[in-house]
Amino acid sequence: MALVTVTLDANLAIDAMMLSGTKNPQDAVELVLRDYLARGRRTEARTGDAADSQRLTADRPPVQEG
After folding, report:
1. Which domain range does residue 41 map to?
2. Residue 5 belongs to a domain
3. Where is the region Disordered (predicted)?
4. What is the pLDDT of residue 56?
């Protein structure tokens, strides 16, 4: 897996460490990012995406008159 180096403000890194409960800023940022991505996938699974819009439209048969 490729590694990426990201420069963050110290306060942001400390906040990420506090939120994730880790003592290493690199681990903290990785955990927060993984949680963010997992949350986005869960939301897509629950709400669908633009391709699912047809599923929500009501295709009702025409009303018979007479």
Report:
1. 10-46
2. no
3. 42-66
4. 58
Residue 26 to residue 7: CA distance in whole angstroms? 10
C-alpha distances out from residue 47 to 9, 35, 52, Å: 34, 18, 9
> What pTM value is reported for the model?
0.55
Instruction: Render the burial of 23-34: b for 16+ CB within 10 Å, e for the rest.
Output: eebeebbebbee
Please check whether residue 65 lies inside any domain of the structure: no
Domain count, the chain: 1
> Does 36 map to a domain?
yes
Q: What is the pLDDT of residue 65?
A: 76
Rounded Cα distance between 17 and 25, Å, is: 6
Tens of pLDDT, residues 20-50: 899 999 999 899 888 888 887 766 666 666 6
Q: Is residue 22 part of a domain?
A: yes
